[in-house]
Amino acid sequence: MLTYADIDGNKKALLLEVDDVLFPVKDYLLQVYYLFAHLLEYTETAPPAAELTGFLKTAYERHGEAGLFGRAAEAFAIDPKYRVQFEGMHKTARLPAKLLLYQATLNLMRAAQAAGKRLLIFTDGDPTIQLNKLRHVEWHGLDQAVKVYFQTELRSKGYDPLDYLLHENGLQAADALYIHAGEGRDPAFLDRLDCLAVNHFLEPPAVSRNPQTNNE
């Protein structure tokens, strides 16, 4: 298991993804499913929220997010019109519980901040969903130190996301280390930037069987 002390001291910035890097993405999704199930029970009186929540949790853990609403709709005869609410809640849900940073990620960010390094969230995916996740994180004060960059938003404006981030912060590619989720989710700029899978920092049983990095 690595710690901040194992990182090249010449790095000036840490770039971090959100999902499964700051916190387990399932901690967000399962709360969205819980809220949706209770909305449906309140609106239609059925299915029971506990049953639908349990179904969504199991289906997600076994099959992932793809087609999840369709499987639930078939199993519980949910009106297709509720797909709009299901998808919309991923963007606007007010979670009942804070999203807790991995302890290893929290330690890493604290150590980097203490060493005068920049903390830059550099996330892909739907910007609205990613922003909603970040709003619910328990930052322990680190929110005052981080800057957030949404790759999808930057691409939509015609920018190369990495070039934009580096230029805005007066950095060269060699100055930054990108912490990503690994497990087949390599960043598109893997060959342009030193990248390290977060699993290297996480304690078992969270450690990946195949941690990925381009600078081992």
What does this structure look like?
- With 216 residues, this protein is α/β, with parallel strands linked by helices.
- The chain has two domains: 4-23 and 101-200, Rossmann fold, CATH 3.40.50.1000; 26-92.
- 41% of the residues lie in helices and 13% in strands.
- The protein has eight helices and seven strands; from the N terminus they run βααααβαβαββααββ.
- The chain has helices spanning 25-44, 49-63, 68-76, 83-92, 103-114, 127-135, 151-156, 161-168; strands at 13-16, 99-100, 118-123, 137-138, 146-150, 176-180, 194-197.
- A five-stranded parallel sheet has the order 5-3-1-6-7. A two-stranded parallel ribbon has the order 2-4.
- α1 (25-44) runs antiparallel to α2 (49-63), α1 crosses α4 (83-92) and α2 (49-63) packs across α3 (68-76).
- The protein is elongated.
